[in-house]
Amino acid sequence: MKREFTGKHAATIIVSGFAIIIAVNLFMATLAVRGFGGVIVENSYVASQEFNDWLDAAEKQEALGWMVEMTRSENGHLLIETASVPAGATVTAVARRPLGQAETTTLSLIEATPGNHMSLEPLDTGRWIVRLTISSEDGHTWATEEHLS
User: Fold this and answer.
1) Residue 145, phi then psi, degrees to nearest 5
2) CATH number for the domain whose boundaries are 66-148
3) Considering the entire predicted model, what is its pTM?
4) Residue ranges, CATH 2.60.40.10, the chain
5) Low-confidence ranges of the chain (pLDDT < 70)
């Protein structure tokens, strides 16, 4: 015995289809919002007013001619080669996760050999953005950010 296809059946199919689409969109939006770690600047207007100052600072930094190479050892320690940086400079590093829950780690560094620094504690596996800041004794500051996997 065949059942007749009525308007109620068509309405049920249409409503069910849209319910599935809405549920998937809500799920994807929830994942996107939870994976966003924050904003880049607090106030874009204020940042735009400071932009030229940031460009001037970048030019001064480049004029120093300091070259730094960051790598990660097999056991997870951060290795920083600062051969062109003046002796006695202070090196600091802060690592943060680029995605997911915000996780920030301040790394303690030692000068393993002249011009080569190493973190005391290893970084956990995964992707990191490392913000490196070097301050010389004569007051110059140099900073960079690098992505490490």
Assistant:
1) -125, 135
2) 2.60.40.10
3) 0.63
4) 66-148
5) 1, 37-39, 100
